[in-house]
Design brief:
The chain is an alpha/beta fold and 136 residues long. A 5-stranded parallel beta sheet has the order 2-1-5-6-7, sandwiched between helices. The chain contains 5 helices and 7 strands. The two termini are 17 Å apart. Helix 1 (3-12) crosses helix 5.
């Protein structure tokens, strides 16, 4: 994915499901979520261990399929070995997101190829916050 495509995603996609969201202020997902919320994005936290609670004032969902609205970006803060199951969940959604965004040091070639084959754009090994700071 080139810089122009990444910039376009960040400028046009505003509903983000953050998979692996944490209420712990020391976790990268918390800082990224806080930043994105502060820059006008709607960020929906996904973490089965925090269901029904709030992170930064946002209600936490157990899974992507529990979110009652269309998601533009699925932003993943989980280990690479969790990506295939996340892609399967994305592909099972009635209203599929446009983008699968894998954070720094997260990659799974087979799962990424499966998402791309289904028409979903894939951003790998990049931080949404860092890219927004750099490009927007």
């Amino acid at each position: 994915m080139n810089e122009t495509e990444v910039k376009s995603i960040l400028q046009t996609k505003h509903v983000i499901a953050l998979v692996g969201a944490s209420p712990n202020e020391d976790r990268p997902s918390f800082g990224v979520m806080k930043y994105l919320l502060g820059h006008g994005y709607k960020v929906i936290p996904v973490n089965p261990g925090q269901v029904g609670k709030q992170i930064l004032g946002q209600t936490v969902y157990a899974s992507l399929s529990d979110i009652p609205e269309k998601i533009d970006i699925v932003d993943v803060f989980r280990a690479s070995n969790a990506v295939p199951a996340i892609v399967d969940e994305v592909l099972a959604l009635k209203a599929r997101p446009d983008v699968l965004w894998l954070q720094l040091e997260i990659a799974h070639e087979e799962a990424e190829a499966k998402a791309r084959a289904a028409g979903i754009k894939v951003v790998t090994n990049m931080c949404t916050k860092q890219q927004h700071q750099r490009l927007i």
